[in-house]
Amino acid sequence: MNHWSRKTGALLTATLFIFYIHTGFAQQASDLIAPEFSHSASKADSPTALSQSTSTKAPLLSPAKEFMVVTAHPLATQAAYQVLESGGSAIDAMVTVQTVLGLVEPQSSGLGGGAFALYYDAAKKTLSSFDGRETAPLAAPSDLFMREDQAIGFFDAVLGGLSVGTPGTVKLLGELHARFGTQSWEKLLLPAIELATKGFEVSPRLAESVQRDAERLKAQAGARAYFFPDDRPLQTGQLLKNPAYAASLSYLAKQGAQAFYKPPMSTAIIDTVRQSSNPGTLSQADFDAYRVIQRKNYCFMFLGYEICTMGPPSSGGLALEQLLGILSFTDLAERNAEDPLAWQLIAEASRRVFADRAKYVADPDFFETPESLVSKTYLKKRSMEITPGKASQQVLPGEAEKSTESNQSASSTLLSGNSPEQTSTSHFVIVDAQGNILSMTSTIENAFGSRLWVNGFLLNNELTDFSFLPKDAQGWIANRVEPGKRPRSSMSPTLVFHQPAANKMKQPYLALGSPGGSRIINFVGHSLIHILLWGDSMQNAFDRPHIINRFGKMELELNTSASNYNKAFQTMGYETAEVDINSGLHGVMFTGNGLLGAADQRREGMAMGR
Ligand code: GLU
Q: What's the predicted TM-score (pTM) here?
């Protein structure tokens, strides 16, 4: 029953005619024309010169026929497996996964954070996109992270109550469960309650994370008491109990998810935020006003596949559509994953994506991302700025046509905000026996979030995903702090469908996503290139060493064969750096033979299906 996946088996993307259609915004018919990929050379499981040298596990498996779950932690995967085995739906299993992850992977996601979820209803053949992102307090000023006209340091903002947004995850769980759940809410919280009560073994990753963050965690009394029992950091393999978390979940089990937003649970959070040494302004009004928003699906065509991911407030949609769209006008299909020139094209496309992302994406209830940024004309123009084999000196945001409905923040006055993101976060995919699919990315932002600990869980620092600077000489920044606004994200829960053949309904093909701050865009985008364009298996795609360029510098994954390209990139004019790049890609592929799960071997994730 335990299905680990390394190879996803034969996969052919014999796509001789490449078609690119944008469906995320209303689009002119004249834009729905195939650009210039001439053909895609695709070989399944081709040998990889650029192979991962740091593999710790080599799972092999056969496909699952009924259901599949992939999460960042074996205990969350196992608990969800049992829900699915007992006939539970993907949404039932989601409730269990998230509550277990909040316990065993507390540094990444939990009750105190926010999330985006894509849900595919197999019976209705419909996709829905849910935004459970945190909101800025209604009392938050746009200069929240400014002191005397200067942006404060990143960790000066992160630590304490100042960066805490109204959490959305619990409401997201509650609302999705109310709509699509089949088993009782109370029952679905039991696995986490039991683990918290009886204890679970601390994983190497949690122990390392505690060790690495010792100074910051120890500065907060609650976090110190939990992560440093007897004043010693948690050790790998140590049995850890969290009775406060068990009590919080037991309360929510009886009272329902909405109880999280009312006293006494809300007041415990508010008091912690307000009484911290770096206080925030969260209040009951924020909890009363909080809502989960069903967003318009963000879908576009690439290589004959329909790719659906998260639109604003995530930058994932625009970024992935631009990345793949710009590359559609290059000869990337003629190249392969071992060709440094292929990575140079991807790098230059990515630099343009990041320039536009910084300027043009924010909460859609406050700012409208201009549609022209994904028009065929625009993407082609951006591709023509790229010189093969030569680094662009400078990459600026493109000029968007002014959107007719744009609000006071006219595009010409928007500046590129600086909001650094750090890597915590968790992505999971669940497919149930009915074929319903959940692809969800969940976060508390930084590792251990704000470090504030309330009733057994950590509070997020999501507000640091806003631009610290509200404006500068040229005007307002789209992603500035505003009351009730959601900070820009990069989280990209993704679902890929086969292009519907005549008279046929579209069929799911891939479900994937990753943590990793703004590199999520590259992790997901590059995986799509490996799988859809170059015909790699999902596990191979995830295992490939990362080569990433967001802001000019070529980042090569440390201790991998990516370093073989160092010289080639330097010759092209790039500054290079070998860095630890910690993706956590998790996904499921739908094949003719069943479901194949894949978990990033850089983390502790596990796929399990039947
Ligand atoms: N807060 C980030 C975002 O929403 C995610 C952080 C991470 O992946 O580590 O984009």
A: 0.90
